[in-house]
């Protein structure tokens, strides 16, 4: 697990792409892979980084466009996760 943690820290660090952009990419992948834990984790990170609901919706829509129907169903889950995190703050 330490190796994966180190990988995630390196991949998520600011570089040519900033952390928010990388989190948006990670959320798109998590959505298209139908990973509930990924959706929650990356949506929370994006909420904390100041992303907007519109940015989340566009990421979910792009994932659905690229992966078809199954991703579309999880796109709705992604927006529900955003709404839940928004209610907390």
TrEMBL record:
Task: Read off the InterPro entries from this record.
Answer: AhpD-like, AhpD_core, CMD-like
Q: Which residues form the Carboxymuconolactone decarboxylase-like domain?
A: 2-78
Q: Does the keyword Cytoplasm apply?
A: no
Organism for this UniProt entry: Neorhizobium galegae bv. officinalis
Q: Which UniProt keywords apply?
A: Oxidoreductase, Peroxidase
UniProt keyword Oxidoreductase present: yes
Please identify the protein, giving its name as recorded. Answer: Alkylhydroperoxidase AhpD family core domain protein
**Gene3D superfamilies the record matches:** AhpD-like
Gene Ontology MF term list:
peroxiredoxin activity
């Amino acid at each position: 697990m330490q190796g994966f943690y180190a990988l995630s820290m390196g991949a998520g660090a600011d570089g040519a792409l900033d952390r928010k952009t990388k989190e948006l990419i990670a959320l798109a992948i998590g959505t298209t892979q139908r990973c509930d834990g990924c959706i929650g984790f990356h949506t929370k990170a994006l909420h904390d980084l100041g992303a907007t609901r519109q940015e989340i919706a566009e990421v979910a829509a792009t994932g659905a466009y690229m992966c078809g129907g199954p991703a579309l169903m999880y796109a709705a889950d992604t927006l529900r996760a955003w709404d839940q995190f928004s209610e907390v703050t």
